[in-house]
Write a structure and sequence with these properties.
It is a single chain. This protein has 204 residues and is an alpha/beta fold. It has helices spanning 16-28, 41-51, 61-65, 101-108, 115-125, 141-153, 171-184, 199-203, and strands at residues 4-10, 32-39, 72-76, 93-99, 130-134, 156-157. The chain has a six-stranded parallel β-sheet with strand order 3-2-1-4-5-6, sandwiched between helices.
């Protein structure tokens, strides 16, 4: 497939709606040719708890998350021999959404013991864009230091914090605006993203 190749990792932090929205927008984006989806075991529990998505056959998960999906292929998180685990495989970027502080720690310290952490490690060593959508509060010093380590290694640490300056009317508005900002970090600006034009213009 022509177009960008993106990896989406889903871990067990609250915020499954962010993962689904990211996949929806990537699937619809003509600039994207392929999306490699990796979901941790805790991430699978998250999808079941927050979205009611349970798949006896994991290969059906992409279709359950994004009906009609054609670009998304699911890779087992235990498969550290998958193509995305090698720097020789061409990738354009990776997001971990939502990202647990455990996944953050694994990535920040180079503990490549599963495919999500290994793919993130590859993104960092190959100087590719990596966005970590960390979801936790309050943050301990350990979390903050791991964020600093990840940032120093080249990752974008982008906590899953909703914005309110654009007067959202629905939860989907909040989710969409945040995910649009995430995808912009991958060089994929979205036309539906709200762009601040200044307080005076907004008041009009």
């Amino acid at each position: 497939m022509a177009g960008k190749t993106i990896v989406v990792g889903v871990t067990g932090a609250s915020g499954a709606v962010y993962a689904r929205k990211a996949l929806e927008l990537l699937e619809a984006d003509e600039r994207v040719g392929r999306v490699h989806l990796v979901i941790s075991e805790a991430g699978q529990r998250l999808l079941a708890m927050e979205l009611g998505i349970v798949a006896a056959d994991l290969k059906r998960l992409p279709q359950q998350l994004v009906p009609g999906a054609k670009k998304i292929d699911l890779l087992p998180n235990k498969d550290i021999g998958a193509a995305i685990a090698s720097g020789s495989y061409p990738l354009d970027g990776m997001i971990v959404v939502p990202c647990t502080t455990g996944a953050l720690a694994a990535i920040a310290t180079g503990m490549s013991d599963d495919l999500i952490a290994r793919a993130a490690d590859v993104a960092l060593k190959e100087r590719r864009r990596l966005v970590l959508c960390v979801r936790e509060t309050p943050l301990s010093r350990i979390h903050l230091e791991n964020m600093l380590r990840a940032d120093a290694a080249g990752a974008v640490v982008m906590p899953a914090v909703p914005a309110f300056y654009f007067a959202p009317e629905t939860i989907d508005d909040l989710v969409t605006q945040y995910v649009c900002r995430v995808l912009e970090q991958l060089g994929l600006p979205q036309p539906q993203a709200y762009r601040w034009q200044g307080a005076a213009k907004k008041e009009k």
